[in-house]
Amino acid sequence: MTKKTGIDSAGGSEPITLRGTLSLSEGRELLETVKERIRAGAKEIQIDLAGLDGIDSPGAATLIQAWRLARQKGGRLRLSGARGKTAAFLELIRESFPPPAPPLRPSRNPLAGLGEKGLVALAEIRAAGRLVVEAVYWSFIAPLEGRGLRWKSLIGEIDEMGFKAIGIVALINFLLGVVVAMLSAAQLRLFGVQILVASLVVIGFARELAALMTGIVVSARSGAAITAELAAMTVFEEVDALKSMGQNVSRFLIAPKFLAIIVCLPLLTAIGFVTGVAGGFALGIFSLGFTFNRWWEQTLEAVTTGDLLQGFIKSLVFAVIIVVVGCHHGLRVKGGPRAIGQATTRAVVQDIFLIIVADLVFASLFYFLA
User: Fold this and answer.
1) Are 5 and 25 in contact, with CB atoms under 8 Å apart?
2) CATH for the stretch 7-96
């Protein structure tokens, strides 16, 4: 026992006992004692303040320094037994003590993380599948059973998704037709068969470009609008209000959008096909010097009903992708206004990704089965 300093340190795991007043000299000895304990491998050091009558400012500074030193070395300093003025003083300087170190995150097995992501993806797929089933039922089966269809909402959605999108779809496909014709003409000129530009343009737009480009435009326009609308209704609890009134969300919100986009996207794809071919036609007539009859004959010889059918089937699949992804993300959003923007962004990106994947699947089928 060291009465001169007022510190009793038995060593090992025993508490360090302080007596009298903790001033600068006692604080320095306390700091050295804490260092010795840390060097000896102690992770938890207890300081008994029951015999302490008071603490002056230099002594408090050394106590805080000892606390910080223990934290830096991965240990812990515990103060116990404070009473009277000592306890009141410690309460005043409590904010000066460094906060406890955050707990270390346990290392995760990469395979476990991959499995967790797989389960989340599987749950998303199941939820999307249920949404498709409900949308098909309320769009096609329920009206035949006399449960009705919201015709006013359907007409409004057709106007928004279809009629108002004609301009942008036609313009983009027309410009794309000019670009495709221009690029192909530069290559075919080397072989003296520039008239085949007409065949390339009409086949490309019939099988691929009209459906793909129109699907991407509609996903960025109508798909984003679907997600934003439903996400806002979800965040502001309008969807919950509909459920509380006994309304079926799929019938009230999803079915009109589902039917509208299935009707509109094939029609917009047809418009995109016509304007895309018109873009190639404009280049062929005004730049390449072909006559109208020659270009028209080459176009009719190249395209077949099967080519047009491919584009039509793709447009239907793309329509389902756009509306399902938009409704899925819109109804599952959680949070505030920021979450609405994040859900809309995810929906558009996922729309475009799934459209391209579906297009790849169709291209592979038609390639290997043709």
Assistant:
1) yes
2) 3.30.750.24
